[in-house]
Amino acid sequence: MTLTPKTLAVSLSDAEIRRHANSDIRQLRDPRYRELRFRYSTVDRTRGAWHVVVAGKWGKAGDYPGINAKAMLATLPSILMRRSANPTAKSIASTWTTVGQLLDWYQDRMIGDRSLSEKRKASAKSALKCHLHPRLDNLALADLDRPTIDRQLMMPLQQRYELSFVRSVWGVLGVAVRKAVRLDLLPTNPLAGLEFTDFVRAKIKPKAARLHSDDVRDLLLMLEARFATEPAVAMLAALMLCHGTRLGETRLARWKNVNTSTGKWFIPAADTKTKAAHTLPLTDRACALIERYRAQQRLTGYAGPFLFPGSTGRALSATKASTLFKAMAKGEWSSHDLRKVARTAWADLGVDYMIGEILLNHAMKDLDQAYIHTSAESLKRQALETWHVWLDARGFNALHGGTYARQGSTDETGEAMNNAACSANQYPPHRRRFLDEGNAQGTPNQQPGDGNE
Residue 140 contacts by C-beta under 8 Å, 6 or more apart in sequence? Predict the structure, then answer.
């Protein structure tokens, strides 16, 4: 009996692969390219995999028919060059030849990634469509290097846009390349070792606030007037001003998570930028404002789940919310400026730096989290009570409609809160020293983390 050989020497081609697909041949090799092997799939012999063997070490180069014989033979020299320098290097043979093909793959994959927010997807799609594709589409992947990136992408963008925006476009390109490398779709990372600062040395300064404490009185007057005609718009801005919340987590608020009886507003992790659940105390003034808005919403006949309903039974969309803010502010400030003015005012009122960070739901180190969970809730409530008393003195009471006895001065309350927050049991030595130094400099609102918006 004659045994069929497991390996057959042929001149590798798609025709040869198809010819032996119905045989017992396990592997094909080509005498012209002694390092290359083709192995049939044990499940479906119309498919298979390419392997490159150097110094006895095997490396998968790709799948057939995704990479056909012609493409594999064309890519083999570059793989051998890479493996000759490092026998353990990847043997991946990419089916992509241009940057545009890589970007197309990343966009398709990103759209189906449920872990990314719609806002993140929209931002990345815009960067791909308006900047990366037009400037890099036909560039060969082999030519994606520092000089080319600087000439075709970074310098043109710097000449037209803010550096913070240029950095965001660079970030999309970097994510696309790293994702492809991790999934073995690219043999090497052409951006390895490159940083944004290699192209831009200037420090990116945060945008200056366009709302200040002196503007709050006029802002509250405007919101009270608008509440009569556009209560949802006025309420959206007022709720953000009162609590320093982000636009995204505020517009998604559900009635089931707002409890004026217990005085708590719960924001699920899925609705926050940091993907960390957030609980905010509701002061009596905030509760009065919420109940006023709830009564008005019921008068219109709405009994749905959202504080700010949009179309088709969903919450107000990000695009619609931004449009409403632009119309209300007339381009003079943004929704994020409400968050900034609240944060700055908290610092001026003596609210402890760490409590301010917690209220903003900024990401924190594990060591900080370990020392704050016990008494942070009461300090958060004290901070917002102080803030809302301050707002009342500038017209907030007209918006929420409640009447409250005069509390202690905001300066006294703020000092008491700061002393409580810095007690020996509240923070470890490294954190107490950090806070003491920051307060001595008078810049508690300039500590690391303020930019984590």
Answer: 97, 98, 99
